[in-house]
Amino acid sequence: MTAPQAPAVAVDEVEELAMDGLRWLTAAARETAGGGLSWTTRPSDDEPNPTLYSGMAGIVAVLLEAWRHFGDDSYADAALRAARGLVGSVDGFDDDSLYFGRTGMAVVLRAVHDELGGKAAGAAADRALERVRSRFDGTRWGELFELMGGNAGIGLGALVAGDAELAVLAMEPYVRTAEQTPAGVQWAHRAGIDSRLHHISHGSLGIVLALARVGRATGRTDLVELALAGAANVVARDEAGPDGFLVPHSTPQYRPEVIAPISFGWCHGPAGDAQVFRLLRDVTGDPVWPALADRCWHTVTHSGLPRRLRPGFWDNSGRCCGTAGVLALACDRIAEQHDGYDFAHVLVADLAARAVRDTDGARWSNVEHRATPSDLEPCTGWAMGNAGIVRELLRFVRLVRGGDPRYAFTWPDQPPVPARVTIGPSRTDAMP
After folding, report:
1. CA 144 from centre of chain
2. What span, in angstroms and rounded, lies between the C-alpha atoms of 407 and 417?
């Protein structure tokens, strides 16, 4: 792991790091029948992984990002070839969710169709969503009932992919399954579990985000109101006010033998909570939500990350649980409020310091402090690997140069920012 204080890195070097990360990532691709490309979660794995979370669909997103950033058609060609590999996974995959299954594939295939004109990708996206619709049991699609693996993610994905009817179908069961609490409502993330999770990835705030976005887009004010009740329940659990915002992972603690009660990243902490509050700001116009996002930012920036304060505290560089997910929020704040710049530099310097670089390119090894050896094999995808990290590095480079802060592929659960941002020329060369 890196030392607490990483050296400054020039913006051109950050771009070179991202290019090296792309080089390692594209070299890890495998040829498929018909000229397609596929990836496994780790290069040593045998089975291709088509998912948005840790596989091919998430990698297509960074290929689109690289194509837009560099203007290099080789990345567009790779995205099209990867889409061919995804087309072959639509029918046979046994999961319908956004992050782990067919809905995530449909979202990415629709983006390839829209951005690059891949007709087969568009047809496969339609087929994927029809398959998802056919597997609905009237309440849910499987064991999980949240953003990553359940209804909330399917509703968000369907909305992004252009199927508002399926989006509403996915969200309506939350109306009748909501559990009343003293402050609002909550949901079980899976059946038969006493614990109630609170944050974006598997908890109530992920459901809140989907309810609010689908409700606003379809005119379903009841879904928006339910979202606000779900948010109120989580806000009432804050333990860091009035300046900060920090809510435990779950109540009572879910799997305390392996899960920490407090986290700070996108998945179970204030870096992800702030994204939900940004969305509620856009939906309602109520100033309470940007104020809560500010409190989340205060907590994140005062938590000690990205330093490894103790074993297990900050062992991940990835987009889901680590530094890249916090960098995404920092860049959102640069674009919207011009106040995330200095901390974004700290995060990027840390990513640069932790990168493994050689003739094969650049990649990141996360750490499992309870295992020996503790350095894990580098991953390819969005959640823990190169795709998610490179995507945020490229956006940071554009921001520092005064360019467009928007992504080529907007993640369904990250509210978009305005089109352009201006940063003073004294800040375009190197990190302080």
Report:
1. 18
2. 9
Please report, to the nearest 10 degrees, the dihedral formed by the alpha carbons of residues 86, 87, 91, 93 taken in order: 0
Nearest residue to 266 via CA among 322, 330, 341: 322
Contact 346, 306 (CB under 8 A): yes
* Phi/psi of residue 357, nearest 5 degrees: -125, 135
Distance between CA atoms of residues 367 and 317, nearest Å: 9
Instruction: Give CA 133 to chain center in angstroms.
Output: 24
DSSP codes, 157-171: HHHHTT-HHHHHHHH
What is the enclosing helix (H) or strand (E) of 177? helix 173-177
Q: Which amino acid is at 51?
A: T
E strand or H helix at 395: helix 386-400
Q: Tens of pLDDT along 199-215?
A: 999 999 999 999 999 99
Asked if 178 and 230 count as a contact pair (C-beta separation under 8 A), the reply is: yes
As a whole number of angstroms, the distance between CA 262 and CA 240 comes to 12
Q: pLDDT tens-digit profile of 238-290?
A: 999 899 999 999 999 999 999 999 999 999 999 999 999 999 999 999 999 99
